[in-house]
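Page 42, continued from yesterday. The earlier attempt failed because a stray header line got pasted into the input along with the sequence. Redoing it now with the clean sequence only.
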Amino acid sequence: MPRTTTEAKEMAVRRQLLPGPADRPRTAHNMSSSSLRKRSDGSLINKVPCAALRAFLANLNEVLLATKLFLLLPAVLLAVAAAYLHFGQVWVFVLSLIGLVPLAERLSFLTEQIAFYTGPTVGGILNATFGNVTEVIIALFALRERKIEVVKCSLLGSILSNLLLVLGTSLFLGGVTNLAAHQPFDRKQADVNTALLILGALCHSLPLMLRYAVASGEHALVSGAAALDLSRACSIVMLLAYLAYLFFQLKTHRQLFDPQEVEDDDDDSVTISQDEPVLGFSSAMIWLALMTLVTALLSEYVVTTIEAASQSWELSVSFISIILLPIVGNAAEHAGAVIFALKNKLDITLGVSLGSATQISMFVVPLSVVVAWTMGIPMDLDFNLLETGSLFLAILVTAFTLQDGESHYLKGLVLILCYAVISVCFFVIRRRADDNQLDGVRWIMEH
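This time it went through. Structure tokens are written below.
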């Protein structure tokens, strides 16, 4: 995928038509990923005599080496090798998780490159939807394997991780680093995301409440698929709300979501306010397709080997899906959110954590239900009492934490502790259930 002479001319022409920094769509999630990029050293490449080879190496350098996470990219090849050479399913699971970290950041980079050429509206939609493409791909593969519990738990875990762990860690470290500084942020963006998250929590709660209302005899069950029908109707409403959110974000109230431009203090890093592409449109599209295919391959490895990892580590699939998968899978954007919090740029940090949680809750979850519907798989929005209660309380705690428009380290610490308690709760509950099953087996054997 070299940047040929024709493509270079195309870029030169298009550059005159590209939107300026004020018009170019850049989400907080996109800027968070940018903080993990670095300047590519092209001194050696410029010495290559062949122009075509020089262009190809420059293209390869920008895509594979211009990131601080390039040291994790070999895990992608190791995961594929481990799968084909049968090194063990646990090794495949671990290497695939590690490989997904740089791939997620590279997908964000390539999406931003394409957004240079597509205009603010299309570019904004690309940035908004590709921000959580890893979760979408994992959910689709899990649905294909009919592992509905993995889909629900992984998506729930991503929401909890963004609301409590990412935001909590960012506010805590940012507060400790900036003890003597004032730490304000814009409440308007937080209020919009919180309102959508509450709508999502309502849609999750209704199928659960319907099940308990019918079980208690308060209401007669008209159809055995009533909860499933309700979930599908709620999913359509959530998708419509997400479309309205995109229109609100990209058109009518764009000023609320435009992150401030920040110059990176590190000389070895690329400036966040970069206003021209480093890849041609054709190259970026080809690389995006390749990276998406590789991400899909590793996501399939994760889905097919999660049970083996669960048995080997003596952890339940639910605990791995809710706690471990989101922590590792979203490590790149999490690191970016923390970096901006350390620089006291809390609007970008909130845009990353709340924006990702909103996208997963209002887009990825209902999309999974609709896709499962088309596949004939009975996936609903009933995430069970403990899971739904944890989601509602996490949204409530986050909303109260952000209500005054200011931050300090104690708020971050409270969110981290909430996440720790929820993690222990899922670990203890699942292990207790496993212990009860083992006790039952022992009783049968003894009697």
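Notes: Residues 1-7, 9-22, 266-273, 431-447 have pLDDT under 50 and may be disordered.
Reminder to self: strip header lines before submitting.
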